[in-house]
């Protein structure tokens, strides 16, 4: 273990060296205050730093599966770039080892849900929390405090030095989500995992996976195999389709969980269901199967028949299989763009689907159009545009329901950054163009006038893929705006300031580059040289 010492000599800093001749002190460390999202409280110990060494281990609270999972994740992040073995060991009560320590509960643990305390001195790095989410959030912060080269997937030379001090932190909102549409254009497992890797860096804790739409059905259902045999073969513009086997889906769910993220699967309805209606004739009102749809816009024919019993047998089977594969509490049930539906149709559909979801031990999560047809107390709805179902959403919020804010003019990641960029062919503008500063410039508590602040569950950044043809284009539009939404979801309102956020955001550019993540160099952000 290297002990970091700073000596003051004639007004200059002179760094002590180890017997191996390596500098210690705080030279080259990342300032604690540069983290994204911004922590609640930061205290720096000037002249103190921790150096990770080859003989170090990572310790996890004995008997805690959550602490061990977070420790294994951290070890997996560090082993390749450092070249160190970093074994994960159990931490018994009363132990005070050197190295990296992850402890659940106990003295100095932050008791607010998903909160953590990170203490760094010359001998150890300690992350304390009261729950699994808090430990993973502490790991995400530590990752940003290590040198940028930690993002390399190859062995790099040290030192691996972290500035000394303390961070006490907890989220503003419990729900911090990213929505990824694999229905319009299919995205293979490896690309979904890459997206998960990136959002996990910034304490996003939910991945809303849009599995079905008019253009494609992307999850295998054993009781209805033609959903993928027919509905899984198409995509927007006639592109090749694809789908996840149930093993693929379980792999994604487990991969996300190992990074502190819960997957929320979505089966869209009663509209946006053309792929299902092309797969099974009996789901159509006239009993005739539709031809597969590959258009860009919403299909005018992709409407489930809400008066047929087979519709709900179908949904019961699909939701039942999906619930068995999904450890998280929610199943998303769609509801978007249903303006052609009567109130009676919406009440019938969502009344029955709500019961189906609950029958399988889950909670329903719908787009805002469903809010007026769901039980208000205990509901979770997603706001995406003004003037659609505002009154119903506000009424649900006042009655005890919760709302996730995802305004298209701020949080929709598939909107173009600017129209003055002819080299940028992808993205949409129906919600306006959205710069990074615009995606940061809003307050979820006051965005929807009349919605009580206590009803705001959190924020989400949706990524629809009608115009996108691969992970590189998805990343270009998602990043760095996803970081702005993550900041809004985590940091306390009083710290909200573009002038201080922009430099912290800019410092993430080299990290994204080292991780081989595409991102847009928004001219309003002071990116460092080489970003």
TrEMBL record:
Listed name of the protein: beta-N-acetylhexosaminidase
Position of the signal peptide: none
InterPro entries with a match to the protein in the record: Beta_hexosaminidase_sua/sub, GH, Glyco_hydro_20_cat, Hex-like_dom2, HEX_bac_N
Entry superkingdom: Bacteria
Keywords: Glycosidase, Hydrolase
Domain Beta-hexosaminidase bacterial type N-terminal: 35-170
Reaction(s) this enzyme catalyzes, per UniProt: Hydrolysis of terminal non-reducing N-acetyl-D-hexosamine residues in N-acetyl-beta-D-hexosaminides
Molecular function (Gene Ontology), one example: beta-N-acetylhexosaminidase activity
Family as reported in the entry's similarity comment: Belongs to the glycosyl hydrolase 20 family.
EC numbers on record: 3.2.1.52
The keyword Membrane is assigned to this record: no
GO biological process, one term: carbohydrate metabolic process
Domain Glycoside hydrolase family 20 catalytic: 173-492
Enzyme class of the recorded protein, top EC level: hydrolase
Entry's Gene Ontology cellular component terms: membrane
